[in-house]
Amino acid sequence: MYVVGLILAINFLNSHYQAIHTVTHKFRIHFATMKIALAQLNFLIGDFENNTLKIKNYIRKANDAQADLVVFSELCIPGYPSGDFLEFDHFIQRCQASVQSLAAECQGITAIIGCPVANPNPRGKLLFNAAIVLHDSKIHSVVHKTLLPNYDVFDEHRYFEPNTVFHTIDLPYGRLAITICEDLWSVGDHALYTLVPMGELIKQQPDIIINIAASPFHYRQSGRRREVFSRNAAKYSLPLISVNQVGGQAELLFDGESMVFDSAGRLVGELDRFHEDFKIFDTTQLREVQSKEQPSDAALIHDALVMGIRDYFSKMGFNKSILGLSGGIDSALVLALAAQALGAENVMSLLLPSEFSTQHSMDDALDMLSRLGTPHEVIEIKEPYQSFLSELTPYFSHLPFDITEENLQARIRAVTLMAFANKFGCILLNTSNKSEASVGYGTLYGDMCGGLSVLGDVYKTQVYDLANYINRNKEIIPQNIIRKPPSAELRPNQKDTDSLPEYEILDKILFEYIENSRGPDQIISMGFDYHVVLKVLRMVNINEWKRYQTPPILRVSSKAFGPGRRMPLVTKYLCQ
Amino acid sequence: MYVVGLILAINFLNSHYQAIHTVTHKFRIHFATMKIALAQLNFLIGDFENNTLKIKNYIRKANDAQADLVVFSELCIPGYPSGDFLEFDHFIQRCQASVQSLAAECQGITAIIGCPVANPNPRGKLLFNAAIVLHDSKIHSVVHKTLLPNYDVFDEHRYFEPNTVFHTIDLPYGRLAITICEDLWSVGDHALYTLVPMGELIKQQPDIIINIAASPFHYRQSGRRREVFSRNAAKYSLPLISVNQVGGQAELLFDGESMVFDSAGRLVGELDRFHEDFKIFDTTQLREVQSKEQPSDAALIHDALVMGIRDYFSKMGFNKSILGLSGGIDSALVLALAAQALGAENVMSLLLPSEFSTQHSMDDALDMLSRLGTPHEVIEIKEPYQSFLSELTPYFSHLPFDITEENLQARIRAVTLMAFANKFGCILLNTSNKSEASVGYGTLYGDMCGGLSVLGDVYKTQVYDLANYINRNKEIIPQNIIRKPPSAELRPNQKDTDSLPEYEILDKILFEYIENSRGPDQIISMGFDYHVVLKVLRMVNINEWKRYQTPPILRVSSKAFGPGRRMPLVTKYLCQ
């Protein structure tokens, strides 16, 4: 039923597609001159009405500017990543209806849009990840993605059949080699794939390489992406145009940074980072540009997080946030980022002191609030804490104060924050950092609560870099907060280093284990202490169950906790 | 570094493997007679020491019984699924060391074990999912998996390169066609794959088909599996032996049910369900057996859940559980299942009445506790509830009682349960059912808490079936609990049907949407009310953020919430 329904439903795509195969190479023109528009846009997954309208408007804008071609990003019709919605006929039918309505717009202009299409072969996965070429008010041709990433956050083999047939696309103004994202990454030492799509397409002598992408941000990705595109352009001696999606999709952040390279592999144009952008390039007038200075890691992460918060809220239909402000650096940083993303008036802070909270933490928190002018309330948690203790005394009285009472404080804070969030329609921002999340230094259903984790992919040492970056022009986060030793303040005189190695050491070990997938032997051989390494790796592994229940984490590194890191919950590996 | 290290590390596998290719077909014997042992075992992921020891003991046991061959399950060395541990050199090296030590055991007997091995090709994924044949104290040959499942809970393209070379394995007693799990599933209308591995292997005239598997349970899987194996045996006119993993791996449950078929496709032997088992078959003495009567769905789900609880606790190193007993059917059922899995003395119930709790709920809960003889405490949540209300009054006093106060009660219960769990070293059992989880009828950080969700893949209507199944011999769950209308008891006279359709309708719509991936148009065309369908689908989609933070759910259906269902958190699809 499913297969048949799907194939019938988008049969129109295949009939066009097969028809076009027979006319390929008909309009061959050498030394093409083209005016190409790059539309780098932010889509909401499954919002067919608005995604289609947005694309339509940019087709018109490009047409008005007399562009020959306007290029949109990978899977722009449904938005990327659409996940298992791709398994629904109804969802694919909605995609198809959007393509139909967009085709009608393409009079006097060509558009390349990203969309899933049916696989006509009765065997294999039901869909291809496709670039659809709209021209003369109809579907001119369809190109399927060849290299399907299936690592980290990517699951494309789950939905798509890989392409095995290679054809360039002839248009009146030139011959296009259309590739989809990963298709250009089979270069150099990136040896995941046995096929090289451009190695096939180049045989048909295209005039230009087009790449449509949904390539997510991490703070080292921008440089890699430039290098890959530049190498492709130079290797095949062809200009190259890449259009990437922009915007936050829950934890996945897309930086855009669409680019144009000349046939020597020189950067000749780039679009904005972290914002929608639209630019037109004439292939006869490509001049090398001085790339904007590459921002620092902290600057990139800062901009990514601000975009991530903003888009999570706006796409969820919320504008108000709440957080617990402790006087420590993590919540201070989240407050600053949220205020920038949502506006100061939309970030409510609750100060929730217990008997173990220090006066200096309160003072520091209040100092920061007065600088930002964001709303806040101070609510002591003493009374609920005492009421729980007296409720529990009959059962616990013979037992010493332990982690139970520490967790209790953190959970009472969470209950209070969630009561505010429920009553006033806010989303609670989680303030845990990646170092804590790694080693399980946090209370489940306590400080690990929240609708969105802002810093869950930012190590503690990077938290300091970000705080300093935020203070680059004026002191927003008080120096007191940055300077004092970190503490959860859940028992008297507690310091993070009571139970954890210094963050300078901890973060390096975590980075080697998490981002670089290095095992204990390799990390120890880098000069770290044997016992510390084993202890840290053990803490990471035995706390998988806690991370299983944490909020979505804005992804800024090459390996974030969440859907990109899939570890067994129950294991004995490195747990002893 | 990574690639080179890995290839050097298990180079020994490849050299053996290539050597054996040259001697294939040397010992060809027709009409083979073999004595084959099936070892259906329960492994702990990454517990190399104990997994290896267990395999070693069963090799000896088979050898003592003069078996020619002993067969273990897919990826038994590291345990399945090992997830991203497969990306660690160190983890693969541990696998390799286990294989080496097991080879030494294989004197006078052959063993087939499942293990990841390096891909010698410098392009493509780094590993193959392999069956390793140990014989004459060394690695005799290696077979790679061809069809890599990458749907639902499966991610095999993430780690493995698919096999493209087909060779049978010659041993003194016969020629084996070794396949790995999915390799036999490319039959009939299951058209996910373009290759048919047995179609290649049959050309080499094998004497028997061996299938090693890690095929997880769901309540309709058993019948499908039998049919697939039977069809393969009959189609190729060969006896077929399948060995499946057994045991719970966090949410994934493996039922074992290893089987033997004769060359007419008749079942001639089967191993136990949900338990380790070991049996020896002589291929000259295969006689059709009457398969045990197929249990009811409720019986299968019951046994799977009991195994899942038992293994989650034992593999985590815990034996004590705690749960909140409300007097409703969900928590009553979890109590009964946990008592069976862990022993009555290891299941602590807390009764946590609020002002909205009814006396009959308390009475029913106490009635059940007296039948089971499990420990319990009664703790009123009135005092903490009042203390939160008085804490919040300054901010909420002008606003009406709403979902905030309902959630507050659920969260105070969770805080109390977690305090007990922390203080006494128990794991909190979550009692939410799949109907509630689907539509978001539950409080995040309240009744949605827990280390393990027992019923998160069991619809409410199935909860009743399970309760009746548990009562089949004597009344363990009081009829009062089964008969009364469901209520969360968070405000006066509340009933589930105040905000939800009748469960009989709700569950059918949910099943079509979740298990069958049917869209609104298809579900409505089945006769369900237009508005109800759209309301239910909307509720499912807008509550993805809640499910993101729920505990691991024991998987008993073909589509459970958790890693097998990957939906965008932020979407507009079917949300209006």
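qc> Chain A is about 40% helix and 15% strand.
qc> done
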